[in-house]
Amino acid sequence: MSVVGQLPSVEIIIARYPLERESLIPVLQDVQAECGYLAAESIAQLAAATGISENEIFGVASFFTQFRFRPPAKHSVTVCLGTACHVRGGAGILSEFENHLRIKSGEATEDGNFDLQRVACIGCCALAPVVVVDGDVHARVVARQVRSIVRTTKAKRKDSIRQ
Question: What are the structural domains of the chain?
Fold first, then answer.
């Protein structure tokens, strides 16, 4: 039975693991997979169950770029700034996305349509510079393609709604 104010899915996830520090990262990964992000309520619930302070849990989670603390946007844009992508213009591509979407890396647009992330390496160095949008890899991107990528992504969403 769920305690009032607790998220049932988080409670179920916590019950799958031994209540020890070594389980913290897998629990956080499962909570994020289930909920889409790590809500403050989820962290508080995990702290209460494990005895690990909320500050320590947040400290662990914020160390890893895989964890997010806000709900994801409808579309996720990730710009690689690894060595190959950086050398081939990755920083300029990120800047163009920031300007076009009017957000900085780590933020989401006010309408919740796009969020923007930068990563150290996507692992597609031969295709550099690389941008990943909703899991789709865009290879050898140049800054002038940013508007087209955003426009195409918005259009895909409209097409999927019509069907």
Answer: 8-63 (no CATH), 75-162 (3.40.30.10)
